[in-house]
Amino acid sequence: MLLGGDNNNSSPFSRPSGFSSFLFLSFLLSFTTFAVCVRAESPPSSSPSSSPSTYSPRDNYLIDCGSGSSEQTSLDDGRTFKSDHESSSYLSTKEDIETSVDSIPVKAKSSPCPSAYPLYRSARIFTGESRYRFFISQPGPHWVRLHFYPVPHSSIKLTDAVFTVQTDKFVLLHDFSIGNTTSLVFKEYLINITGRLSIIFKPHKDSHAFINAIEVVSAPGSIISDAASTVAPRDTFTGLSNFAFEVSYRLNVGGPLVTPKNDTLSRTWLSDEAYNAFPEGSEAVSVEPKNVHYPDGGATPYIAPNWVYASAQKMKEAQVMQPNFNLTWKMSVDPSFSYLIRFHFCDIVSKSLNDLLFNVYINEFMAASSLDLSSLTNALSTAYYKDFVLNATAVKNDSITVQVGPASNAQSSLPNAILNGLEVIKLSNEAGSFDGLFAVDGTYKGDAGTKMKIVAGVGLLMGVTAIVFLGIVFVRWQRRPHDWDKRKSFSSWLLPLHSTKTSFLSSKSSSRRSSLFGSRKSKSGYSGLFSNQGLGRFFTFTELQNATQNFDENAVIGVGGFGKVYIGVLEDGNKVAIKRGNPGSEQGINEFQTEIQMLSKLRHRHLVSLIGFCDEQSEMILVYEYMANGPFRDHLYGTNQPPLSWKQRLEICIGSARGLHYLHTGAAQGIIHRDVKTTNILLDENLVAKVADFGLSKAAPMDRGYVSTAVKGSFGYLDPEYFRRQQLTEKSDVYSFGVVLFEVLCARPVINPKLPREQVSLAEWALQCHRKGILEKIIDPVIAETICKESLRKYVEAAEKCLAEYGVDRPGMGDVLWNLEYAMQLQEASTQIDHPEDKSANLIALDKPCENLSREDLAVAVSDNSEIAAGSSLFSPVGKVRGR
Ligand SMILES: *[C@@H]1O[C@H](CO)[C@@H](O)[C@H](O)[C@H]1NC(C)=O
Ligand SMILES: *[C@@H]1O[C@H](CO)[C@@H](O)[C@H](O)[C@H]1NC(C)=O
Ligand SMILES: *[C@@H]1O[C@H](CO)[C@@H](O)[C@H](O)[C@H]1NC(C)=O
Ligand SMILES: *[C@@H]1O[C@H](CO)[C@@H](O)[C@H](O)[C@H]1NC(C)=O
Ligand SMILES: *[C@@H]1O[C@H](CO)[C@@H](O)[C@H](O)[C@H]1NC(C)=O
Ligand SMILES: *[C@@H]1O[C@H](CO)[C@@H](O)[C@H](O)[C@H]1NC(C)=O
């Protein structure tokens, strides 16, 4: 829907910032307090039960995106939008190695009309996939409103931006482009949400996405009921609650624009002028809004404000034309969707009851015949509304035409018909989309014949190719080399992916490649598969011998069941970690193959990258990126490494959680790591955490929810439920990660047999101490004093949930990540207050220790730190940052 220019003069920044900070902080501290605080944001008189003319939404997220200032934006309709800084905690940008700039807030310089709208002065631009996440405290329908205006920018033309916007379940816009229009585009959706809402912006390849403002606001549960009438044939339609809705048109017929200020639910009602197809025949009438009555049961001010019912179009006095005609409104729509059409009526024209009798048509189908408002409401000037569902098959000529005309059996002196308000609402389609047939997961739900034929053709071709390929494989298998048995274990510790720097480099000595299936001279077989899938380069054995000085014992940096890990320096000077397998380790060729397929889909900043491999001379060698700072555990205890600060530890935990979250959800089929522990979290030279060692990893099951498998993993980290039932789920990784979190906090081995019995297992001991309220006693003394209380609370809460007895009670990695990020924000806030001199010079300086901080103090600091959500690197070189 396009909104024309409106001269809303605004007085932004009128709210004292202390108040805003308080709101923001409340969100950080607890979702429940947030809900309470938001309520305080609404007018004080708001109490829906006593006075239905106001409504205080439980969830009320209003964000003015890209607004560089840390102050809020107040609109003259009384609503206040959070600034970018205050809302940064909702935003996360997908980690992508190639994306260095995640989002650029842009200031509009001066644009003619939209500058009147405070919200359109700024936009946030996304160069990669990005996501806003909102916690929804009240399950049920929510307005999701998006504002787009192509703010001028020196280098990026927002009018060219092409992007997709979707929530967890619905595609809101697909490959959307605002085009070179100067109008703003406003989109409004009504979606039933439980728990959490993500709004995801996905720029089209080489393009950008942008957004000026976002609203996510609770709506009354009764706003759209489950049933409506249908036309053609006339019947009853039930099941509306299964749909999501997009408002296409909302008209205040016969009246002026109604702004959010005059609507209990902050809706905008346009004047019907532009859609009135026969203005010559119509005449606007209106009464004082206070004269409009709402019946007991039926229409309420939530359905439409009295401003809408107080005005209407009626038929012009009939002396001048023939007495019988229709009032007609015509609106263009996307014909591939079904629509909910809501009529608002209020008889403000009749002098007595039963004087007005008219028909209602939708696209020339009779929707209601001889509608008698007074028999429905038993009074004049009383609000009434009626819903109809128009099936996509009945949408013709790309438009919806609504008509009202006098019924032929009208008894009254003058034939008449009225309409007070009209809403045309698009229903989500079978793909869960409002824009095309692509579902949120990118699958195409259409069935068009030609498309099917193409797909079938491609499928056939692929099938034939596969058969030919299998034939070749079979022949090769027959001629497999004699030393095959020695080499089949190659895969037992197969791994993650290639680094972009060195991938696809072909080896000088490719003719000497060996392969598991083919002859040494052949380029095909797994070596070929490896490179084809971008799994990295092929190394000759000689190359690796040179890199490690012939696998010198001094170059060993790790030893495991699989063999040894060496540090190596390649000819180009790059350091790598070289993992050389023992020829004795186990795992079949099938698993090797599955793992290659599985792992070829993985690539993430927080997963260790595979650079290449060597399978020459019966060798099984994998080459990884070198992680200069080694295993996380070595920085926690048992070595002479300088201790890490709380913030560094948190950042590492967050990084690992991201890696695991990606593992669980990033690939088409989730992957369970199965051996999460501090020695499998490696740190690079900047202390960025990367999850390593996928030797035990399993593809997550698609259907049953678990894999039945022999219990493997590391003692002390092992999920007891998995141990008992031998059924593996992602939640087993979550359990292990919970143990890691306590290990990080307490800096002691997860199993220490030398300790008194109840203390041997860290997981049990930490939980026990936490329950007794004495967890502080076992925290690593090096950092204990530096941890902000709130940060600790959030962190321990996350760890404790991870260790829940049953998998179903444990959070997903996404939730764990979310909690850790909070813990970090709370810690940052307290640190900033302790060091007011650094960086944020405009902060209010406070000399209070962290425990004594009031909520407002903390909020000021948090809301001023814009970098939090951007995942900035918070590290200094090891040793420089020490706990206080
Ligand atoms: C939009 O831009 C294209 C090319 O950039 C131009 O041909 C077209 O006339 C423009 N449309 C409007 C409405 O300005
Ligand atoms: C919202 O969805 C939930 C379950 O998904 C359902 O129980 C509830 O009735 C729905 N609410 C509305 C107003 O449709
Ligand atoms: C909105 O309400 C104000 C009074 O609160 C009134 O003066 C104004 O005319 C109303 N505007 C519309 C479009 O109804
Ligand atoms: C009003 O519109 C309906 C549907 O388009 C049509 O069937 C009817 O004849 C019209 N009435 C008059 C009086 O033109
Ligand atoms: C529209 O009609 C088609 C077939 O007549 C039916 O399958 C579909 O469910 C209908 N959609 C709605 C929203 O009524
Ligand atoms: C659709 O267009 C055709 C020809 O343009 C016209 O005859 C027909 O009445 C139109 N139908 C509607 C519902 O507007």
From TrEMBL:
Main localization, broad class: membrane
Biased composition (Basic and acidic residues): 76-92
Coiled coil ranges: none
Ranges annotated as spanning the membrane: 454-477
One of the record's GO molecular function terms: ATP binding
Name used for this protein in its record: Protein kinase domain-containing protein
Domain Protein kinase: 551-823
Superkingdom field: Eukaryota
Leader peptide range in chain numbering: 1-40
Annotated Pfam families: Malectin_like, PK_Tyr_Ser-Thr
Annotated region described as Disordered, given as residue ranges: 67-92
Membrane topology: Single-pass type I membrane protein
